[in-house]
TrEMBL record:
A Pfam short name: EamA
InterPro entries xref list: EamA_dom, EmrE-like
Protein location: Membrane
Protein known as: EamA domain-containing protein
Its membrane topology: Multi-pass membrane protein
Keywords: Membrane, Transmembrane, Transmembrane helix
Keyword Cell inner membrane on entry: no
Listed GO CC annotations: membrane
Main location group: membrane
Superkingdom of the organism of origin: Bacteria
Domain EamA: start-end pairs: 2-128, 138-267
Spans through the membrane: 24-44, 65-81, 87-104, 111-128, 134-152, 164-185, 197-214, 226-244, 250-268
SUPFAM superfamilies reported for this sequence: Multidrug resistance efflux transporter EmrE
Length: 275
């Protein structure tokens, strides 16, 4: 999960730098092309060509349609809202994921998980301080993206039981590439040298983020993974402060502490059980 946190933070920086200059559809297309090349190379290098095959194409397809929608909303939100607010709104994902995992994967919603999720969402409310100003187009887009991500994460957990992480990544890039190609056809712009660097960073950090996430979900319940994912908020808050002069508000600090307590609670309980 540490690799996931670092990768998503780098991807957010790249998305912010590209916002307003390169179409979101083009960003998603480029990351799919680069990702497909990198993953294919890794599979060939591992001499495990069976990783190119799958018996679960329908689930891969569903996962990646929702995942593409989630990515689109996330990238658009990065350009409309402060980084910390985008990540805070995105943290409704664990609630949707927990409910979806309970409905479709048979995972139990224990009291400690629900407590940790409730603390996490309370932290989000403290940070966002819901007012009429928050219910903006950007906020609605990010909230819709959060639900799409929850569907994708739940599908990833199911796929991870039978598929290798590289297989999941290969089909993610393969399925999303034509979607991005169709949508970016009319808005394509030749990137500058600097924009090309940012596009490469977005593509590689996205790839590493999903590889780490797939590995984490293979070794832990999806709800636990998503609860630990709350650590992304304080990380991106620091990025926003240092790089974009975004304010460190008392609400952000208090909300971050509340979410951190929820993370520590579920992690401590999980470690006690494993011991």
């Amino acid at each position: 999960m540490i690799g996931t946190l670092i990768s998503f933070s780098l991807m957010a920086i790249g998305a912010r730098e590209l916002s307003g200059n390169i179409s979101t559809y083009q960003v998603l297309l480029v990351r799919s092309v680069i990702g497909l090349c990198v993953v294919s190379f890794l599979i060939f290098a591992s001499k495990q060509k069976e990783l190119f095959s799958t018996n679960r194409l329908p689930l891969h397809s569903m996962r990646n349609v929702f995942h593409f929608g989630g990515q689109f909303g996330w990238f658009v939100g990065i350009g409309l809202l402060p980084l910390s607010e985008v990540f805070a709104l995105e943290f409704t994902v664990p609630l949707w994921t927990a409910l979806l995992a309970s409905l479709f994967l048979g995972e139990s919603l224990t009291l400690k998980k629900m407590t940790a999720i409730a603390l996490g969402l309370l932290g989000v409310v403290i940070i966002v301080q819901p007012t009429q100003d928050v219910i903006s187009v950007g906020a609605i887009i990010v909230l819709c993206a959060a639900f799409c991500y929850a569907v994708a994460h739940t599908s990833t957990k199911s796929l991870a039981s039978t598929e290798a992480p590289l297989t999941i990544l290969f089909y993610m890039c393969l399925i999303q590439l034509p979607i991005g190609l169709i949508l970016s056809w009319q808005v394509w712009k030749m990137p500058s040298a600097l924009e090309s660097v940012w596009l490469l960073l977005v593509a590689l950090s996205a790839l590493s983020a999903h590889y780490c996430l797939a590995k984490a979900m293979k070794n832990a319940e999806v709800t636990l993974v998503m609860i630990l994912d709350f650590f992304r908020l304080p990380a991106i808050a620091v990025v926003g402060i240092l790089l974009y002069d975004e304010p460190l508000t008392p609400a952000l600090i208090i909300g971050g502490v509340v979410m951190l307590f929820g993370n520590l609670l579920v992690t401590y309980k999980s470690n006690r059980r494993n011991q």
